[in-house]
Amino acid sequence: MKFLFPEFLWAFAVLLIPIIIHLFNFKRYKTHYFSSLQFVKHVDQQTRSTQKLKHILVLISRVLAFSFLVLAFAQPYFSDPDSNAVKKENILAIYIDNSFSMQARGIEGELLSEARESAQEIIDEAPQGSQFIIGTNEMSGVEQRRISKIEALEKLDKITYSPLTRSLEEIIDWQERAIAKSDGFKEESENEHTLVQSIILSDFQRHKVSKSSNLKLKHFEFHAIQLAPEQQENIYIDSAWFSTPIRKVGEKNEINIRVVNPSAEPLQNIEVTVNIDKFKKSFYIDLPAKGKKTTSISYTDKLKGYKTGEITLADDHVLFDDSYFISYEVKDHANVLVLNGNDAIDNVEIVLGLEEFYTVESNEITAITLDNFKSKDLVILNGVNQLSSGVQNYLIDFYENGGSLSLFPGKEPSINSWNNLLRKVNLPLLGEKISSGTRIKSLNYDDAFIKGALQDRSDKLNLPSVTSSFRPLISNSTNYNTLITMQNGLPLLAYSAGKGNVYMFYSAIHPDWGSFSRDALFSTCVLRMSELSQRTQPIAMTIGDQSVYPIHATLNKDEVIHLIKEELDFIPQTKERSGVSYISLNQFDKFEQLFAGNYKITCGDQIGNLSLNYSRTESLLDYFAENEILELFKEKGATSITFERMDSMNSPVSQIAIEKPFDYWKLCIVFTLIFVLAEMLLVRFWKS
Q: Is the pTM for the entire model greater than 0.85?
């Protein structure tokens, strides 16, 4: 026999007290007066033996009662090398899935509420002296420490929904690391008296399975408890986007909204409400079974400035994905930098001067610095022949940070320097000069560039002429779109869309090479390039996404960037590159501070808005089956696994066989009460 708390065994020394009391009781004498000595002799013979027996039995009862009381506090157990039921210490690692899919309603309310109640039952039923590790999708370092029963119950009350999503592999790996980092924990061979039980309360939503290393601590005993919703149906707003990349005062905006219905039943008259700035509209849509529907509505911004909006869906099941937040800026101007070369023409600046919307800065390409590129949306190379390595670096950095380029070479461009630039922006390289088949043949009306510039499609346009061009060297590595095609089938104007747009004209715009620069098509193309080159931030971002949010405004170096939403003031992680600051939202330890919604971006003053939405990963209510869950555990190397599905009133968590040491201390309490009762009966009813 061993004891969980052997220090209580010192209390056996107190047993000397009742023994001493009984010894003195045996020596106490009483005086009795009798009329006959013969009667005294008779009484003495009748009571001496019974009194002695009574005193001995009372003494034994008291000693045994106190002894079992001491043993109850010491908590005895029997060591059995072939059984895991008896251990020196009991560690329960309870993991509660608090992802948004746990908003689904189960048999007694939301699944997260059921998980908390089930965990509370497990903690209440755990053996005395057990230690707990309570984990959630946060997986923070604080959650890795061992806590007492009272602390565990307090932790349960504080668990709320989290935008984080964890796979079963991540949960098992985290619990193993948490146990390995526990105070004084060593390898399994040195912890033969430690029982580690892992209880995972989750809906076990189906996620992508990732391969990871097997368990290193083989003493784990896993108990998977799947909380099943009553309904596995959910509709949600998947995304929203504008049909055009820019927004201007007085011009029509068309926003597209995609709603998804994963269920097997079609749905009718689902209400959708759009609320953007001062525009509000509700409409009804029908959703096909296991399908999606995209709906478009139009409105007009009447004032410039920062705009925020929310698109909501009427749904009473899972709620986190029924709202989609957006924000954008309506600008009053765009900044264009024109870099003039030896063969520059005046028409470029003349065309841009036709629109007050564009603020133009013009410089010789040989006299520019990095400061010239700050706050610019578009850089136009006007008749440039030579590109120095420094200029190339400026242009590439500008492009990598979301800026757009319009490239018009001169009559005698340096092929090597130009091709170095074109190679980095993924466009066909410049080849030799050609003069045959260079007349303009057609425009690509299917591309949004041409479609937005020319309202009516016509094959009878009087297109300008180009007498010569440079042969584009097309390879499989290039990824571009052709806007204007020559009669020889080669592109005259092409573009690639990356972090910014890059437009390349494969001829010179000098009048010696044709009439293109004097035609209305040239003006249309320059204005369209400038229009589509406005630096715009994403209208929405997903919390936890690896992408970053660019800030093109000039920042106050003495101030820190803040995200502010009502009472929440959050300082995000930021990085600066080539004069552009980027906000990162993939800080896993900060997710608990962020909520979906529209945030102001401030750096002293407001410099923008940022709309955050929760990931739709949890929106699809698809769950692993029992055999799949057990197989995932086995693939991790687990050998002791039990499974319970909580989908009816007949499967309470109290029936789950959570292995724990046999409570011998309860037997000790029972024996204590028995011997106390025996003493009381002896004293009260045994008359001597």
A: no
